[in-house]
Amino acid sequence: MPFMSGKRAFLELLKQEGVEYLFGNPGTTELPLMDGLVEETGLRYILGLQEAAVVAMADGYAQAAGKLGVVNVHVAPGLGNALGMLYDAQKAGTPLLVTAGQHDQAFSATEPILWADLPPIARPFVKWAAEVRRLDDLARVVHRAAKTALAPPTGPVFLSLPADVLNAEGEVDLGAPTRVAARVRGDRAAVEAAAELLARADRPLIMAGDAVAQGDAHAELVSVAELLGAPVYAEGIANTASFPASHPLFRGTFVRLAPAIRQVLSQADVLFSVGGDLLTLSLPSDLDPVPPALQIVHLDTDPWELGKNYPTRIAILGDPKATLPDLEAALEERLTPAARARARQRLEATRTAKARHVEDLAAKARAEAHKSPITPLALIHAVAEALPPEAVVVDETISSGGGLRTFLRSDDPKSFFGLRGGGIGWGLPASLGVKLALPHRPVVGLIGDGSAMYTCQALWTAAHYRLAVTLVILNNASYRILKQRIHAMKGLAAQADRYVGMDLDDPRIDYVGLAQSLGVAAERIEKTADVASALTRALASAGPSLIDVILDRSFKPS
Ligand SMILES: Cc1ncc(C[n+]2csc(CCOP(=O)(O)OP(=O)(O)O)c2C)c(N)n1
Ligand SMILES: [Mg+2]
Q: Are strands 3-5 and 169-171 parallel, antiparallel or unpaired?
């Protein structure tokens, strides 16, 4: 067994686990680790200037790479700053190892500055949280943490690393990583029963969830959808390209409000959710989003999600890529010639309806393109038109993203990442992580102005590491979504036309100046006609660029 320090062992263990980047913000308890990094060539430390930004960078990296993301933060206050973005990582199922430096265990009893019992702070947001007590346990615990984060359903884990464990020296058995093979085939009888139900459905509808993109199962789902002629919707809070957006059966994302969902689901007799979320809403409603007659078939990697809120006729635990071919084969056996003919009719009808919808919305966007200030729809259309097909979009558009999934060619599973958890401030730093994971693809973050301010420190990280990301700020000088929603409440705000705490206009934030002060090239645009050229310039740049788009601030329904 090699003789080494805990800090060296920790770095060796990360490398064994295939880790390339250690995202972090250091303090005194991390100094043993930072000391160890001086001679480390296999791991790159990526410094972020606030823990929320650091966690979201690692989250974007882990989602886009499909690998373990590792973050190190500083004791209780550092972990506290990290929690909002850790919540987002949990909701997205991101395989993340968050570690925090902890005081020497012999010292902790005195309650030194910055000390707190760390695992209980992280526990609600992770699959597993623990403190490493002895150097002898380090390898076992780190390997267990990595295995747990990456085992389906994937998700974050937390380890507290006391300074004495990192400073200790001894003979260390580094062990080896374990990977839980993820391609679990769903129960054969349940798959047959699902095929039976779907083959007889008159109006099947598919919800494609993140598990499809994460498990690289586009082709398998396309085959099943085409066989059924079923329109495919992405989840209400879709954070991946779970179905190729240009496909004629793709009808966009579910709206996140119960009446709108009910309207879509009322068109169906059987809903087939493939790893799809049933159904996270943002507001309560007296109306149940699921019509009582709807039959649900649900295939998911996470047993917790199966039947969580709605009775599910057939619930299958399994990996989409491994299970959908079995379903396809079972459907092939059961679909009668008449059923196949009806499926083809449905496909053609959906193709026509979709083409009309895209053309109508594009016509509306083009008609708005001459308006000043720029309207959200005109901007989204212009961005989608200007982006090359290999572009990856990170979406934190909040109230201004209408049309995004209609116009964007997000056709491969890594072409789109969105905010799943709802804790804003994720998109700007996540764009950096996505770029680190996919260095050869253009990465464009579309970020609300309010959202950008939670983690604008990440601009410095982009400049420092010369990350060629393009950040488009959707600048309406407001928390527009909150204004829309409070106005819809028809209460005092709507009557008085006063919106307390929702305007960011006194003073207006100078995003160009902010970016430049942190080392990022930036320009402001005020005309839709300038979107394409600004994007072309930004995408050609060897470093990061920010485009501050002055947007129409209006929020009342017209
Ligand atoms: C961490 C966090 N704090 C506050 C909120 C509440 N919130 C939701 S949307 C929003 C405003 C977003 O503003 P912006 O990014 O400018 O988008 P816009 O609404 O203008 O489209 C706020 C404050 C939240 N979701 N997460
Ligand atoms: Mg805004």
A: antiparallel
CB 103 within 8 A of CB 29: yes
Residues 6+ apart with CB under 8 A from 530: none
How many angstroms is it from 502 CA to the middle of ligand 2?
9
* Ligand 1 contact via 85 beta carbon (within 6 Å): no
Residues in the chain: 558
What pLDDT does 282 receive?
84
Q: CA-to-CA distance for 451 and 479, rounded, in angstroms?
A: 9
- Mean pLDDT for the chain? 97
Q: Going by CA atoms, what residue is nearest to atom 23 of ligand 1?
A: 479
Other beta carbons within 10 Å of 272: 28
**22 three-state secondary structure:** strand
Report how far ligand 1's centroid is from the alpha carbon of 551 (Å). 16
Using most ligand atoms within 8 A of CB, pick from 419, 454, 482 the residue to mutate for ligand 1.
Answer: 482
Look up residue 25 and give its two tokens. 């913000």
CB of 478 closer than 6 angstroms to any ligand 1 atom: yes
Ligand 1 proximity of 481 Cβ (cutoff 6 Å): yes
The pTM (predicted TM-score) of the whole model is 0.97
> What is the phi/psi pair of residue 527, to 5°?
-130, 140
pLDDT-based confidence at 36, cuts 50/70/90? confident
Which of 380, 373, 387 has its CA nearest to residue 403?
380
Task: Please enumerate in sequence order all residues whose Cβ is within 8 A of that of 508, keeping only pairs 6 or more positions apart, or say none.
Answer: 477
For residue 283, what are the CA distances in angstroms to 91, 148, 257? Answer: 18, 33, 7
Tens of pLDDT, residues 262-285: 999 999 999 999 999 999 988 889
Structural contact between residues 274 and 208, judged by C-beta atoms closer than 8 angstroms: yes
* Full DSSP string of 79-91: HHHHHHHHHHHHH
Establish whether residue 88 lines the binding site of ligand 1, counting it when its CB lies within 6 angstroms of any ligand atom.
no
Pairing of strands 157-162, 96-102: parallel
Answer yes or no: are the C-beta atoms of 507 and 483 closer than 8 Å. Answer: no
Distance 454 CA to ligand 1 centre (A): 9
Span 377-407, pLDDT tens digits? 999 999 999 999 999 999 999 999 999 999 9
Q: Is 438 helix (H, G, I), strand (E, B) or coil?
A: coil
Measuring from atom 10 of ligand 1, which residue has the nearest CA? Answer: 479
Q: How far is CA 465 from CA 345, 459, 462, 544, in A?
A: 53, 10, 6, 9
CA distance 247 to 249: 5
Cis preceding linkage at 507, omega within 30: yes
| Ligand 1 atom having least distance to the Cα of 450 | 16
Partners of 298 in beta bridges: 273, 315
Cα 523 to its chain centre, rounded Å, is 27
Residue 428 C-alpha from the chain's centroid: 12
Is 90 exceeded by the pLDDT of residue 558? no
Could you read off the pLDDT of 243-252 as tens digits, one per residue?
A: 999 999 999 9
